[in-house]
């Protein structure tokens, strides 16, 4: 297929595909799916070999958020029956983090609900980072605390944070229909503040919120422009009690096409298979490892993932290996400096122009994918509970 040959060539050279090519990946038919995965898998292996980086989420503060992000079970007015608790103590967070590290995670992601941290919250998280690094000196710590204000990124960096996560989530054009309490530009600004402070930026998207293919390509091209070191790809978990509860739009095949498109657009960036993989990819999860080089181990913020051991078994059975703490995740041209810098961009090429190929089949998606509410389990273990975490 001309399209895939062109995209592999560009991915191996870190050149940006054209929007038409990215759209064409999303429009490929199910008959071509394995060819698409194999092609994007070549790009993944060029930059990341067979390694899979494991990341572990610690929800420091759950629920009761004043923001109204429609996809979020912690939003203002959410009726989802999630765990709600205020800040974990540093030693509680460190214990949860240690469980993830013992399970193989090399990065711990410290997440707190809310619009953004107060300076006191930054102090609190700084103490938590110190407690985690006391117990696990080499672990990477990523903070995800919402919108940052002046000087907070620098303070987190000084406290030992390696990275900061703030997702763009959806395209600028659709942002206002998903969230009204802050803007796409606010999110871009926070990612840029993190980068300016020397934090490795992590920023990604959520697919399955009713967006068009054009919206998906827009947000992924927006991410490439922003040049984060890692790009989490979430698939919407339509929580009952949230405005998007009825949005069951994804099939496993669609998820794989989205991951392949992200890999082609951001060939040398850590593409992380994130929330919703068990719910939407289901038994097709191992194929996604040919596209993403990073996953979350165990549970998510407010929902349960599959057992941590099942993640490890899946990685081994699919012929991949867990990335060790002594291995640098990013390719050498991106990883000079601390935990990844961004001098080269998601790729270093300009805007590519190319033949979009002849493999469109927009009838490939089932009209209404089945709602798999049976696969959505609210998290009832780990951080904020008396039960051991899943790692
Ligand atoms: S700001 Fe964060 S925690 Fe609050 S509703 Fe939005 S995504 Fe959820």
From TrEMBL:
<dbReference type="InterPro" id="IPR006638">
    <property type="entry name" value="Elp3/MiaA/NifB-like_rSAM"/>
</dbReference>
<keyword id="KW-0808">Transferase</keyword>
<dbReference type="GO" id="GO:0051537">
    <property type="term" value="F:2 iron, 2 sulfur cluster binding"/>
</dbReference>
<feature type="binding site">
    <location>
        <position position="69"/>
    </location>
    <ligand>
        <name>[4Fe-4S] cluster</name>
    </ligand>
</feature>
<keyword id="KW-0411">Iron-sulfur</keyword>
<feature type="binding site">
    <location>
        <position position="72"/>
    </location>
    <ligand>
        <name>[4Fe-4S] cluster</name>
    </ligand>
</feature>
<dbReference type="InterPro" id="IPR002684">
    <property type="entry name" value="Biotin_synth/BioAB"/>
</dbReference>
<feature type="binding site">
    <location>
        <position position="109"/>
    </location>
    <ligand>
        <name>[2Fe-2S] cluster</name>
    </ligand>
</feature>
<feature type="binding site">
    <location>
        <position position="142"/>
    </location>
    <ligand>
        <name>[2Fe-2S] cluster</name>
    </ligand>
</feature>
<dbReference type="InterPro" id="IPR013785">
    <property type="entry name" value="Aldolase_TIM"/>
</dbReference>
<comment type="function">
    <text>Catalyzes the conversion of dethiobiotin (DTB) to biotin by the insertion of a sulfur atom into dethiobiotin via a radical-based mechanism.</text>
</comment>
<protein>
    <recommendedName>
        <fullName>Biotin synthase</fullName>
        <ecNumber>2.8.1.6</ecNumber>
    </recommendedName>
</protein>
<keyword id="KW-0093">Biotin biosynthesis</keyword>
<dbReference type="GO" id="GO:0009102">
    <property type="term" value="P:biotin biosynthetic process"/>
</dbReference>
<dbReference type="GO" id="GO:0051539">
    <property type="term" value="F:4 iron, 4 sulfur cluster binding"/>
</dbReference>
<feature type="binding site">
    <location>
        <position position="202"/>
    </location>
    <ligand>
        <name>[2Fe-2S] cluster</name>
    </ligand>
</feature>
<feature type="binding site">
    <location>
        <position position="65"/>
    </location>
    <ligand>
        <name>[4Fe-4S] cluster</name>
    </ligand>
</feature>
<feature type="binding site">
    <location>
        <position position="272"/>
    </location>
    <ligand>
        <name>[2Fe-2S] cluster</name>
    </ligand>
</feature>
<feature type="domain" description="Radical SAM core">
    <location>
        <begin position="50"/>
        <end position="277"/>
    </location>
</feature>
<keyword id="KW-0408">Iron</keyword>
<dbReference type="GO" id="GO:0004076">
    <property type="term" value="F:biotin synthase activity"/>
</dbReference>
<keyword id="KW-0949">S-adenosyl-L-methionine</keyword>
<dbReference type="InterPro" id="IPR058240">
    <property type="entry name" value="rSAM_sf"/>
</dbReference>
<dbReference type="Pfam" id="PF06968">
    <property type="entry name" value="BATS"/>
</dbReference>
<comment type="pathway">
    <text>Cofactor biosynthesis; biotin biosynthesis; biotin from 7,8-diaminononanoate: step 2/2.</text>
</comment>
<dbReference type="GO" id="GO:0005506">
    <property type="term" value="F:iron ion binding"/>
</dbReference>
<dbReference type="InterPro" id="IPR007197">
    <property type="entry name" value="rSAM"/>
</dbReference>
<keyword id="KW-0004">4Fe-4S</keyword>
<comment type="subunit">
    <text>Homodimer.</text>
</comment>
<dbReference type="InterPro" id="IPR010722">
    <property type="entry name" value="BATS_dom"/>
</dbReference>
<comment type="similarity">
    <text>Belongs to the radical SAM superfamily. Biotin synthase family.</text>
</comment>
<keyword id="KW-0479">Metal-binding</keyword>
<keyword id="KW-0001">2Fe-2S</keyword>
<dbReference type="Pfam" id="PF04055">
    <property type="entry name" value="Radical_SAM"/>
</dbReference>
């Amino acid at each position: 297929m001309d399209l895939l040959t062109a995209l592999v060539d560009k991915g191996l050279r870190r050149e940006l595909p054209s929007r038409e090519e990215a759209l064409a990946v999303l429009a490929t038919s199910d008959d071509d799916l394995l060819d698409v995965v194999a092609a994007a898998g070549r790009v993944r292996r060029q930059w990341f070999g067979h390694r899979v980086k494991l990341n572990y989420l610690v929800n420091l503060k759950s629920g009761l958020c004043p923001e109204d992000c429609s996809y979020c079970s912690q939003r203002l007015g959410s009726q989802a029956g999630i765990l709600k608790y205020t800040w974990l103590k540093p030693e509680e967070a460190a214990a949860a983090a240690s469980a993830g590290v013992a399970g193989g995670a090399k990065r711990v992601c410290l997440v707190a609900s809310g619009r953004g941290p107060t300076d006191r919250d930054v102090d609190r998280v700084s103490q938590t980072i110190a407690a985690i690094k006391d117990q696990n000196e080499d672990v990477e710590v990523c903070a995800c605390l919402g919108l940052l204000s002046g000087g907070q990124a620098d303070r987190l960096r000084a406290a030992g944070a390696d990275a900061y996560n703030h997702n763009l989530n959806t395209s600028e054009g659709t942002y206002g229909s998903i969230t009204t309490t802050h803007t796409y530009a606010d999110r871009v600004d926070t990612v840029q503040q993190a980068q300016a402070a020397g934090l490795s930026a992590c920023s990604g998207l959520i697919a399955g919120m009713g967006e068009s293919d054009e919206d998906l390509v827009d947000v992924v091209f927006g991410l490439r422009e922003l040049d984060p070191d890692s790009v989490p790809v979430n698939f919407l978990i339509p929580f009952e009690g949230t405005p998007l509860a009825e949005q069951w739009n994804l099939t496993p095949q669609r998820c794989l096409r989205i991951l392949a498109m992200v890999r082609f657009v951001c060939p040398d960036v850590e593409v992380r298979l994130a929330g919703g993989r068990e719910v939407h990819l289901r038994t097709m999860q191992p194929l996604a490892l040919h596209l993403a080089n990073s996953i979350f181990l165990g549970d998510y913020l407010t929902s349960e993932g599959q057992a941590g051991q099942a993640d490890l078994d899946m990685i081994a059975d699919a012929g991949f290996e867990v990335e060790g703490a002594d291995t640098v995740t990013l390719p050498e041209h991106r990883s000079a400096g601390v935990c990844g810098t961004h001098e080269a961009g998601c790729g270093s090429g300009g805007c590519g122009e190319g033949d979009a190929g002849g493999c469109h089949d927009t009838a490939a998606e089932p009209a209404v994918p089945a709602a798999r509410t049976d696969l959505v389990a609210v998290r009832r273990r780990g951080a904020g509970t008396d039960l051991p975490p899943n790692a």
